[in-house]
Design goal:
Layout (H helix, E strand, L loop, with lengths): L18 E5 L7 H11 L5 E4 L11 E4 L5 E4 L8 H13 L18 E5 L2
Parallel strand pairs: 1-2
Antiparallel strand pairs: 1-3, 3-4, 4-5
Length: about 120
């Protein structure tokens, strides 16, 4: 693994306190590529790598959190192939009151991979 990939685990957050968290334990050989794809798709939302998001039966897991916004957990994703869907989700999440996305159809397949939503 390239040095620096886990530097984002230091708690970097956007100006809005947003964090996108990808599971680094699901497919460790692809972590660098996943992080690069996510950062490219949503450059203004910091990407963190967690050692494990505890959804191991359905790799790869992604989580989204920010103060005052709903927290989302997706599993069974492919952050490289679904980077555009992730960007669509982030746009909906940002524009939705308190981060509660009520119509996720613009997110494509990603919408079917939701494992949990915790209200703000």
């Amino acid at each position: 693994m390239v040095a620096g990939i886990f530097d984002c685990m230091a708690g970097l957050v956007s100006k809005k306190g947003e964090r996108m968290i990808v599971c680094g334990g699901c497919l460790p050989e692809r972590t660098e590529k996943m992080v690069a794809a996510l950062r490219s798709a949503v450059p203004d939302c910091p990407v963190e790598v967690a050692a494990c998001l505890n959804a191991c039966g359905h790799p790869v897991s992604l989580a989204f959190r920010a103060p005052g916004r709903a927290v989302y957990l997706f599993a069974g994703t492919d952050p490289v192939d679904q980077a555009a869907e992730v960007a669509a989700f982030v746009g909906l999440w940002r524009s939705a009151p308190r981060g509660v996305v009520t119509d996720a159809r613009p997110c494509g397949r990603l919408r079917t991979m939701l494992r949990g939503c915790i209200p703000a």
